[in-house]
Amino acid sequence: MTFGFAPSSAASTSTSADLSAASANPLVRMLEPAEWAAAGIPLLRNPREVVSGLHSRHRPGPATAIVAVLDPDERLCASASFIRRPAPADGWMFRNALLAQLRRVIPHDLRRRTPVRTAVLLYCREGDARWTEEDGAWMWGLRDACTLHGLRCGAYITLTRDGWQVLGEGRGGRRPNTDSQPEPFGLSEAPPPLPRTGGAASEVLRRAAAR
User: Fold this and answer.
1) Phi, psi of 68 (to 5 degrees)
2) DSSP of 150-164, one letter per residue?
3) Whole-angstrom Cα distance, residue 9 to residue 147?
4) In this predicted structure, what is the pLDDT of residue 27?
5) Where is the stretch described as Disordered (predicted)?
6) What pLDDT score does 164 carry?
7) Which candidate, 32, 100, 156, 163, has a CA 20 to 30 Å from the CA of 196?
8) Angle at 190 between CA 65 and CA 165, to 5 degrees
9) CB of 71 closer than 8 Å to CB of 45
10) Is the predicted pLDDT of residue 29 greater than 60, yes or no?
11) Residue 39's pLDDT is what?
12) Which residues does residue 78 pair with via DSSP β-bridges, in sequence order?
């Protein structure tokens, strides 16, 4: 036999109303800088190299988001970029977009007891490097998408005309920025694999790689 208390109809109505109001209010689905800083987000050892590598690989323009997955040695495992739709900033929508990209480029790690790989987000936008409500929505979306894909939530980085900025850490730099030319890939990124071919074509590729 179990004992409990049945909620009153008034309490049930109040709870449902609160949940409906929360789901209808995009400002609920965002993180303030202080909340983000207190969340224990792992620091990047070499943020400029990560930013430069993603900038060179994807060449983002304004309103472009790049989600990348890094291994424990901060080497790039996978990345994807997409354009943000012209709609009000909403962490739930951003979460869904990020999760869709993660599922497309890399298997989940939900079977692990603790996450091993880390997802970071680079967002290229107009304006200066100061935090905005849009940034807060991206932070909320990144954290939630990582939880649902079995990843550690990593850094959120903005890229503007002034340069790049790791929000919540105070680290940044002038290059790359939205106007700069892509730099060579960072050393932390593995070179792209050679195409899987057979016979003489493979031999030609191996000789070309050796040069």
Assistant:
1) -130, 145
2) T-EEEEEEEEETTEE
3) 34
4) 62
5) 167-211
6) 96
7) 100
8) 35
9) no
10) yes
11) 87
12) 69
Which residue is associated with the tokens 């990582």? 146
CA count, 13 A, side-chain hemisphere, 198? 0
CB 136 within 8 A of CB 31: yes
C-alpha–C-alpha distance, residues 165 and 128, integer Å: 10
Q: 15-29, 87-101, 104-118, 135-149: lowest mean pLDDT where?
A: 15-29
**Which string of DSSP letters, residue by residue, matches 1-69?**
-----PPPHHHHHHHHHHHHHHHH-GGGS---HHHHHTTTPPPPSSHHHHHHHHHHHH---TTEEEEEE
Bridge partner residues of 76 (DSSP): 70
Cis bond upstream, residue 176 (ω within 30): yes
CA–CA separation, 114 vs 112, rounded Å? 5
Q: Averaged over 154-175, what is the pLDDT?
A: 93
Tokens 């990144």 correspond to 142
What is residue 104's three-state secondary structure? helix
According to the model, what pLDDT value does residue 139 have? 97
CA distance 79 to 67: 6
- Is 70 exceeded by the pLDDT of residue 123? yes
Sheet containing strand 64-70, edge to edge, reads 76-83, 64-70, 118-124, 152-160, 163-166, 171-173
How far apart CA 137 and CA 121 sit, in angstroms, is 12
Rounded to the nearest angstrom, the gap between the alpha carbon of residue 1 and the centroid of all alpha carbons in its chain is 48
pLDDT, the chain, mean: 80
Mean pLDDT value of segment 31-60: 93
